[in-house]
From TrEMBL:
This protein's name: NAD(P)-binding protein
Source organism of this protein record: Trichocladium antarcticum
InterPro entries named in the record: Epimerase_deHydtase, Lipid_A_modif_metabolic_enz, NAD(P)-bd_dom_sf
Pfam families: Epimerase
Domain NAD-dependent epimerase/dehydratase positions: 7-237
Length: 375
């Protein structure tokens, strides 16, 4: 059997990075793993099962966007180079200033990409987003029209383009939808926290726009299995990849087969919480389109107070990363709609969790309870 690959995970304490590290650790997939993050493990809301995989001698605290950190990040005791580098770093918060994304996302990607090329890393995996595609209800394939619609996506697309120009970089780009699963603290978490407040208030949870709006998803366990499968496929010779028809940089959408919509999410949440869910009429949605800032402010004003009360009542003094705070960029009337068939056809990947279900969402809530984050 060939030597197991050595693995460097940039942004290794982020949501995807920590699950990737755990997957590699539990299945004994690598000869060595290094986790790099600018946040210390003690401050990263790490559940107990991640501690062995992400902390101790495996962990290096460093800001990978800074030139002077690169030697400490990449150098290994025996002088050899890393086989796989996964860039799971970058700014994940919405609605930040351009400069923040330029430095923390674009700058970071280019710094580690150039270093990986210089050192002859066998496979460099850059995580990107499905928000780079021109919004359309029919699923976007990897070569479809690009028109980024969130600030994160604007800078992720620039990173994709600039990395592709780096001489000698063994680059793979992976574009992701909304990711959910245990301990998730973004998109699905916001919806669940909102639902918890509506349940407490005894009122209906009404969604903007329409039930057909696409909000495609992937479960974290499928995402990390896909990342591992793609890096193995790349280093084994990129079977079935054709530069002429597919482009010089292997690019894959990782998205489940459920074609998740707002309507599907509303149904699942309604069942899980035992609340009424529905959609605002055309009139309110049209008003919201024209006055999105004030609509978002109103929603947040309505929910944040009751959420704080729920935490107090539950005796949760150290609240986790969960909040019903709604980001304006996530409330746009834009479809996140992706086609994941290339990954299945070219890499031979199969999804364990092909669609989001009530059981999987309840598993997420259960993980919050375990951490004492959930009122």
């Amino acid at each position: 059997m060939a030597e197991k690959p050595s693995v460097l995970i940039i942004g290794g304490l982020g949501y995807i990075g920590r699950f990737l590290a755990l997957h590699i650790h539990q299945n004994d997939l690598a000869s060595e793993v290094r986790i790099v993050d600018k946040v210390l493990p003690q401050l990263a809301w790490l559940p107990a099962e991640f501690e062995e995989a992400c902390a101790g001698s495996k962990f290096v605290q460093a800001d990978a966007s800074r030139e002077q950190s690169l030697a400490r990040i990449f150098d290994r005791a025996d002088g050899t180079q890393w086989d796989y580098v996964f860039n799971c770093g970058g700014e994940t918060r919405y609605s930040q200033e351009d400069e923040v994304y330029k430095l923390r996302s674009l700058g970071l990607s280019l710094a580690v990409g150039r270093e990986a090329a210089k050192r002859g890393v066998k496979c460099f995996v850059e995580l990107s987003t499905g928000m780079v595609y021109k919004p359309d209800s029919s699923p976007s394939k990897e070569q479809d029209k690009l028109k980024p619609w969130s600030k994160i996506a604007v800078f992720k697309l620039r990173a994709e383009e600039e990395l592709a120009k780096i001489e000698g970089l063994n680059l793979v780009i992976v574009r992701l939808p909304h990711i959910y699963g245990p301990y998730a603290s973004q998109w699905v978490a916001t919806a669940l926290c909102m639902a918890r407040v509506y349940k407490a208030l005894g009122s209906e949870m009404k969604w903007l726009w329409t039930k057909d709006l696409r909000t495609n998803t992937a479960h974290i366990s499928d995402v990390i299995r896909a990342l591992w499968a793609i890096s193995g496929w790349y280093t084994a010779g990129k079977n079935k990849w054709d530069d002429k028809t597919m482009g010089p940089t292997p690019t894959f959408n990782v998205v489940d087969k459920g074609a998740t919509t707002q309507g599907a999410m509303a149904d699942i949440i309604g069942q899980s919480f035992g609340i009424q869910t529905g959609f605002q009429g055309q009139l309110i949605s049209t008003f919201a389109k024209l006055n999105l800032d004030s609509v978002v402010d109103d929603i947040n004003d309505e929910l944040l107070g009751p959420w704080a009360d729920l935490l107090t009542e539950a005796g949760i003094t150290r609240p986790g990363p969960l909040t019903p705070f709604m980001e304006r960029e996530l409330l746009k009337d834009t479809d996140l709609s992706m086609d994941g068939s290339r990954l299945e056809e070219v890499v031979g990947f199969t999804y364990d969790k092909p669609k989001i279900t009530k059981d999987l969402v309840e598993e997420v809530i259960e993980s919050y309870r375990k951490m004492n984050w959930w009122p």
